């Protein structure tokens, strides 16, 4: 007998937008460094939309993460990306 | 004859008396300053003190509208209060959904606190949050500092 919950489709959280701010200053030389962890359904443009409100800024994220993202169309859930200047 | 010697004697006596008066004891040496131990404040180590959830925050970034139950269209804030000093500290908020702990969002922010500070993380979902139970786990420098549960109801 199957548990009906197991057949339920996982909710899609790829359209979740997020942000953060602090009363504390940023460390020297790292103005507001943030990281973002890729979730299922994400793309660099979706992440740019979430983090900057502008999907066209995906290249900035790619440039900051070229050491781990060789192909901008291939990112994986759980990957931690630097979000520059955010 | 008596008068001839009386005047100089008086003058001499007056001079001796004046001299005696003028010759005062030398002032005591100033007291040697006693070294006073100066209290050097010990830097408070950086730590998370509280995590509060709410629907909105004020200019001071503190929760204005505290809540643990949210609607599908709410923006959910997790406000992290910290104390202490650190040249660099990383705060992370990991939001998960349901018993399986499906990752909703994970974001971190580097700060250099110089005392008490407030850092807010927020999430929103334009298409609406699925109803159910959620958790936000806040960690500081990789160590989980607090976990808060909340619920979204239709």
Summary of the model, kept short:
The complex is a heterodimer of chains A (86) and B (154). Chain A is of the alpha+beta class and 86 residues long.
Order of secondary-structure elements of chain B: HEEEEEEEE
Major β-sheet of chain A, in short? 2 strands, antiparallel
Integer average pLDDT of chain A: 86
What portion of residues of chain A belong to β-strands? 15-25%
| Beta-strand percentage range of chain B | 35-45%
Strand order of the largest sheet of chain A: 2-3
Put simply, the count of helices of chain A is 3
Structural class, from helix and strand content of chain A? alpha+beta
Please provide the ordered H/E string of secondary-structure elements of chain A. HEEHHE
The structural class of chain B is: mainly beta
Helix-residue proportion of chain B: 10-25%
Order of strands across the main sheet of chain B:
2-8-7-4-5
Number of strands of chain B: 8
Number of strands of chain A: 3
Tally of helical segments of chain B: 1
Give the largest interface. A-B, 29 and 36 residues
Low-confidence stretches of chain B: none
Q: Please describe the biggest sheet of chain B, giving its number of strands, its sense, and whether it closes into a barrel.
A: 5 strands, mixed
**Integer-rounded radius of gyration of chain B:** 38 Å
End-to-end Cα distance of chain A:
49 Å
Question: What does this protein structure show overall?
Answer:
The complex is a heterodimer of chains A (86) and B (154). Chain A is α+β, with helices and mostly antiparallel strands and 86 residues long. Helices cover 23% and strands 17% of the residues of chain A. Chain A has helices at 4-7, 44-52, 58-64, and strands at residues 16-22, 34-37, 80-83. Chain A has a two-stranded antiparallel ribbon with strand order 2-3. In chain A, α2 (44-52) crosses α3. Chain A is globular. Residues 1-6 of chain A have low confidence and may be disordered. Chain B has 154 residues and is mainly β. In chain B, 14% of the residues lie in helices and 42% in strands. Chain B has one helix and eight strands, in the order αββββββββ. Chain B has one helix spanning 2-22, and strands spanning 47-54, 69-70, 76-83, 89-97, 102-111, 117-125, 132-140, 143-152. In chain B, strands 2-8-7-4-5 form a five-stranded mixed sheet, with no helix packed on it. In chain B, strands 1-3-6 form a three-stranded antiparallel sheet, with no helix packed on it. In chain B, a hairpin with a 4-residue loop joins β4 and β5. The longest helix of chain B has 21 residues, at 2-22. The termini of chain B are far apart. The mean pLDDT of chain B is 86. The chains are: A alpha+beta (86), B mainly beta (154). At the A-B interface, β1 and β2 of A face β4, β5 and β6 of B. β2 (34-37) of chain A pairs antiparallel with β5 (102-111) of chain B, so a sheet runs across the interface.
């Amino acid at each position: 007998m199957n548990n009906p919950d197991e057949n339920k489709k996982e909710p899609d959280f790829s359209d979740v937008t997020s942000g953060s701010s602090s009363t504390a200053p940023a460390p020297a030389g790292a103005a507001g460094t943030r990281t973002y962890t890729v979730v299922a359904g994400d793309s660099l443009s979706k992440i740019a939309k979430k983090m900057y409100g502008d999907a066209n800024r995906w290249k900035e994220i790619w440039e900051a993460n070229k050491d781990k993202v060789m192909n901008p169309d291939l990112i994986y859930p759980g990957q931690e990306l630097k979000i520059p200047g955010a | 004859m008596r008068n001839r010697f009386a005047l100089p004697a008086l003058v001499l006596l007056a001079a001796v008396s004046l001299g005696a008066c003028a010759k005062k004891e030398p002032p005591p040496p100033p007291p040697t300053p006693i070294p006073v131990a100066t209290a050097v404040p010990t830097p408070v180590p950086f730590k998370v003190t509280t995590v509060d959830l709410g629907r909105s925050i004020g200019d001071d970034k503190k929760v204005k509208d505290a809540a643990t139950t949210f609607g599908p269209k709410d923006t959910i804030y997790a406000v992290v209060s910290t104390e202490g000093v650190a040249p660099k500290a990383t705060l992370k908020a990991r939001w998960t959904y349901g018993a399986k702990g499906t990752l909703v969002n994970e974001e971190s922010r580097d700060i250099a606190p110089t005392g008490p500070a407030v850092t807010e993380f927020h999430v929103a979902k334009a298409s609406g949050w699925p109803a159910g139970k959620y958790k936000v786990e806040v960690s500081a420098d990789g160590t989980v500092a607090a976990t808060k549960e909340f619920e979204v109801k239709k």
